[in-house]
Design goal:
By secondary structure, this protein is an alpha+beta fold. The chain has a single domain (8-134), classed as Hotdog Thioesterase (Thiol Ester Dehydrase, Chain A, Roll). The chain is 24% helix and 34% strand. The chain has a five-stranded antiparallel β-sheet, covered by helices on one side. The chain is elongated, with a radius of gyration of 16 Å.
């Protein structure tokens, strides 16, 4: 997944499919973040409030996108900016398809700007945003 500076070009599109979100990941995230809202871990509670079932914390999809951007940066670069908007839910057992499109490559600053997104199905976005990688 690591992309070298020289291998990134404007309009290039990159993709990564994550493993499915599992309950253990949600429980661990709840403990790490302090967000123990039961809609993230208990099926009955989630359905009681009108959800289709357990949903992942929104910040998990942001973290997945941040990890994706860092994998693109590799050891030669770092993510200097990550900005996202949460646009949909991620349900238990769904995978995320992370996409990045290079929108700008600044040779002088050795910086790449990306449009990034995480989808649960084609065109069904959970998170959209922008990232900058500095080399």
């Amino acid at each position: 997944m690591i992309k070298e500076w020289s291998g990134l070009e404007v309009d290039q599109e990159l993709k990564l499919v994550t493993p499915p979100i599992e309950k253990l990941q949600l429980v661990k995230y709840a403990g790490a973040s302090g967000d123990f809202n039961m809609i993230h871990t208990d099926e009955e509670t989630a359905k009681k409030v009108g959800l289709p079932g357990i949903i992942a914390h929104g910040m998990i999809s942001m973290g997945v996108l941040g990890d994706f951007a860092q994998k693109l940066a590799g050891h030669q670069g770092f993510v200097s900016r990550l900005q996202v908007k949460f646009t949909g839910m991620v349900q238990l057992h769904e995978s995320l398809t992370c996409r990045a499109k290079v929108v700008k490559k600044d040779e002088e600053a050795r910086q790449v700007d990306l449009q990034i997104s995480a989808e649960v199905a084609p065109g069904k976005y959970a998170t959209k945003g922008e990232a900058t990688i500095q080399y």
